[in-house]
């Protein structure tokens, strides 16, 4: 379970998270949606301790985040734009991850196979195509089999086949009881992958609940229509 309580974050004079409250259930998948700049990545980074909140609390699996980042061992994170040591070969990067963690990966070979990364292993990170870079990020997020997975726009830049394979993988992770959090601008993708949706607008949560309920409440058949309706609401 992840609890977020009255979370606030400003960058300079811009209040980016305006007192967010959220309970993310264990073993289910949640989509975070909202326009560009709404605060989705900032929320995820705050949960990971990569951005320090100005106030509020986050509790993950009963551990309150207060400068002790041991809980992060249980979280696999695929960033929107990963920064890597660019001159390093992909294979060496996987090795470095293993070394830093002091643990053998649980299913790296399987992920390399699934994402068709065998031909890329000897290439330096700087020589990878954008999509293959994404796949390396995905493999790093999942290789140690963490119980919580955060994916920030995971399929942006992937070709249709890779995107399909990746979504199958996320389904598998979900079915094995993981807690999955995904940000995406592709509503059809979220319909396939998540049970709950958080809609953030200008740093505030405008909706949090089951996708089915959101569709019913807004008399919509598709998530895209329901989110568009929420954005039209007065005060939004
Ligand atoms: N390190 C930073 N310094 C200053 N401003 C920042 C920083 N990180 C984020 N911001 C600002 O915070 C706001 C929210 O950014 P964030 O990346 O969380 O949005 P997002 O909802 O993930 O957007 P997108 O859909 O475009 O990825 C933006 O206005 C952004 O410019």
UniProtKB/TrEMBL annotation:
Keywords: ATP-binding, Nucleotide-binding, Transport
Residue ranges of every copy of the ABC transporter domain listed in the record: 2-227
Gene3D superfamilies: P-loop containing nucleotide triphosphate hydrolases
Alphabetical list of SMART domains matching this protein: AAA
Name of this chain's protein: Copper ABC transporter ATP-binding protein
One Pfam family cited in the UniProt record for this chain: ABC_tran
Molecular function via GO: ATP binding; ATP hydrolysis activity
Xref: CDD domains: ABC_DR_subfamily_A
UniProt organism field: Rhodohalobacter mucosus
């Amino acid at each position: 379970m992840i609890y977020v309580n009255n979370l606030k974050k400003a960058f300079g004079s811009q209040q980016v998270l305006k007192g967010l409250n959220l309970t993310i259930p264990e073993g289910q998948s949640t989509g975070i949606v909202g326009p560009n700049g709404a605060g989705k990545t900032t929320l995820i980074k705050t949960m990971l301790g990569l951005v320090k909140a100005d106030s509020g609390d986050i509790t993950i699996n009963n551990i309150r985040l207060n400068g002790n980042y041991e809980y992060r061992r249980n979280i696999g994170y695929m960033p929107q734009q990963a920064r890597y040591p660019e001159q390093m070969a992909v294979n060496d990067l996987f090795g470095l991850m293993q070394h830093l963690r002091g643990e053998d990966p649980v299913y790296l070979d399987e992920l390399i196979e699934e994402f068709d990364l065998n031909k890329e292993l000897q290439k330096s990170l700087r020589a990878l195509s954008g999509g293959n870079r994404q796949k390396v990020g995905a493999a790093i997020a999942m290789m140690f089999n963490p119980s919580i997975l955060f994916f920030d726009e995971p399929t942006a830049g992937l070709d249709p086949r890779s995107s399909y394979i990746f979504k199958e993988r996320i389904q598998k992770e979900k079915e094995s009881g993981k807690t999955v959090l995904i940000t995406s601008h592709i509503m059809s993708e979220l319909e396939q992958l998540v049970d709950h949706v958080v809609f953030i607008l200008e740093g505030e949560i405008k909706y949090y609940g089951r996708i089915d309920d959101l569709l019913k409440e807004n008399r919509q058949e598709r998530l895209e229509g329901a989110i568009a309706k929420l954005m039209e609401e007065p005060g939004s």
